[in-house]
């Protein structure tokens, strides 16, 4: 018998990303879905959850464009964007929009998931669908 | 409350770059001056409430400060709500005094991110850090973008809020930034995190400010020169991370204000001026709306008509606020509210009798409201 230590929800999320699978948690007791990873349902506080894979469609809630790099790894990528998207399945996440058009209000636009190998990880980014 | 609390004294340090000073040293200077202002001896103080500095978070900071001040307070410690802590602690002090837990409390804030660490403002956030997600300003930019989506000409309101604060700061000899702002300069300034420009963002400052809180009856007994009654206090906490907030342009500021106005038995229209936490211009726009000072359109019109100036219909941030006086998170706004009620502000609003002060913390995680009046 091997006694493998259980992975934390964050570790499971990261391991799934490494396999290019974007996942969120869903409560077995009340059906609430959420990101980022945590060990109890923020709605009913139950510790019973399951992992679900996102279909990859989402809607933009808001976005910003960095003109200052607080993170030195992004210094040579300025200006770069960070966006907030609602997955079709309900959970919300922070991401980047690939090829974001300049000077357009993209709130409410549909985006689709596109993994990029970057910073030695598989990063979940999105692209405008229409 | 059965017996009203008053702010009996105020004290502050210089604001700006203060090299070589610890936050304990800054707190002590502000407390010493607040006690001098109230003409109260240190030994009478039996409550000490303090906000932990963002530049260096450490455990038992309240006790460390008490030790440095040679105090063993009956009631005291740190309360952490970020920038909302100041007004919340004044409320806690008032309630503690009413409940017989202490009689005279010092409430103080010091920070030194200008010469010390500003990591708290620039840090990367959670699992999204690898996507470049970092800094407090970016969190506010996310809110501002959504606000601009709802109100496409909000940029003009942001600009008018910044121009008013900078005009007031220019007249304030204690202000860190005394350079007035005009439309052309505002529009020409660099983006920090779009849609927030340089002049939408507060200063980074070293400094401290403190107040002495006691009951109105005690202030009378001690013959305090210029006590300013606390008419209302309130809190409201959005709590969730900005990225998870269901509606990015709604916070619990409305709950905080409703609690404070109900306690005071007053309404927004009774206020002669407002000191509104202005870490970013969008915060002021949202707070004024949440407090009931008017719809976006009404505020937009007010800004265009110069209504936020000292002789306007709604004078705001009359000492310059975080955008001009000091970026220190919030206590300076309480001090300016007290000065307005005493009638000795450098930008005195004529016949000012009532003032509302807002504090908030994090990325609109926390909010607290104070109503002062004569
Ligand atoms: Zn649940």
Automatic annotation (TrEMBL), chain A:
InterPro entries per UniProt: ChsH2_C, ChsH2_Znr, NA-bd_OB-fold, Thioester_dehydratase-like
Gene3D superfamilies membership: 6.10.30.10
Segments forming domain ChsH2 rubredoxin-like zinc ribbon: 17-50
Limits of the ChsH2 C-terminal OB-fold domain: 51-115
Protein name, per record: OB-fold protein
TrEMBL record, chain B:
Transmembrane regions listed in the UniProt entry: none
Record key words, sorted: Transferase
Domain Thiolase C-terminal: start-end pairs: 234-373
GO molecular function: acetyl-CoA C-acyltransferase activity
CDD domains: SCP-x_thiolase
PANTHER family: ACETYL-COA C-ACETYLTRANSFERASE, NON-SPECIFIC LIPID-TRANSFER PROTEIN-LIKE 2
Domain of life: Bacteria
InterPro entries xref list: Thiolase, Thiolase-like, Thiolase_C_2
Name by which UniProt lists this protein: Acetyl-CoA acetyltransferase
């Amino acid at each position: 018998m091997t006694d493998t230590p259980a992975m934390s929800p964050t570790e499971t999320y990261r391991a799934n990303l490494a396999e290019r699978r974007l996942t969120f948690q869903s409560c077995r007791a009340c059906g609430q879905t959420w990101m980022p990873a945590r060990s109890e349902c923020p709605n009913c506080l139950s510790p019973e959850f399951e992992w679900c894979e996102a279909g990859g469609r989402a809607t933009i809630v808001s976005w910003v464009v960095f003109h200052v790099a607080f993170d030195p790894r992004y210094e040579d990528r300025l200006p770069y964007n960070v966006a907030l998207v609602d997955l079709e399945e309900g959970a919300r996440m922070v991401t980047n929009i690939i090829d974001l058009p300049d000077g357009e209000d993209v709130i409410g636009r549909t985006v689709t998931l596109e993994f990029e190998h970057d910073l030695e990880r598989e990063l979940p980014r999105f692209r405008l669908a229409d | 409350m059965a017996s009203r609390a008053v702010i009996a004294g105020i004290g502050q340090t210089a604001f700006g770059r203060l090299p070589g000073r610890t936050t304990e040293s800054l707190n002590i200077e502000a407390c010493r001056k607040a006690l001098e202002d109230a003409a109260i001896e240190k030994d009478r103080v039996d409550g000490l409430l303090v906000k932990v500095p963002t530049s260096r978070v450490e455990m038992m900071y309240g006790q460390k400060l008490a030790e440095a001040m040679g105090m063993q307070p009956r009631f005291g410690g740190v309360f952490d709500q970020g920038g909302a802590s100041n007004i919340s602690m004044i409320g806690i002090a008032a309630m503690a005094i009413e409940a017989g837990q202490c009689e005279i409390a010092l409430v103080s804030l010091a920070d030194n991110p200008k010469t010390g660490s500003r990591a708290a403002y620039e840090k990367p956030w959670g699992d999204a850090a690898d996507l470049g997600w970092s800094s407090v300003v970016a969190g506010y930019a996310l809110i501002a973008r959504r606000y601009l989506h709802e109100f496409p000409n909000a940029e003009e309101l942001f600009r008018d809020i910044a121009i008013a604060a900078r005009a007031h700061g220019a007249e304030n000899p204690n202000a860190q930034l005394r350079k007035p702002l005009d439309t052309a300069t505002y529009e020409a300034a660099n983006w920090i995190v779009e849609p927030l420009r340089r002049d939408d963002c507060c200063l980074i400052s070293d400094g401290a400010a403190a107040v002495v809180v006691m009951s109105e009856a005690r202030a009378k007994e001690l013959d305090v020169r210029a006590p300013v009654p606390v008419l209302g206090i309130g809190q409201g906490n959005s709590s969730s991370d900005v990225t998870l907030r269901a509606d990015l342009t709604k916070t619990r500021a409305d709950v905080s204000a409703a609690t404070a106005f109900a306690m005071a038995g007053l309404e927004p229209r009774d206020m002669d001026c407002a000191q509104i936490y202005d870490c970013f211009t969008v915060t002021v726009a949202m707070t004024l709306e949440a407090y009931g000072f008017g719809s976006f359109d009404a505020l937009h019109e007010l800004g265009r008509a110069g209504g936020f100036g000292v002789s306007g219909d709604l004078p705001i941030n009359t000492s310059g606020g975080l955008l001009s006086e000091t970026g220190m998170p919030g206590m300076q706004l309480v001090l300016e509210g007290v000065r307005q009620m005493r009638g000795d502000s450098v930008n005195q609003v004529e016949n000012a009798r009532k003032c509302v002060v807002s504090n908030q913390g994090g990325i609109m995680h926390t909010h607290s409201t104070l109503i002062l009046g004569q």
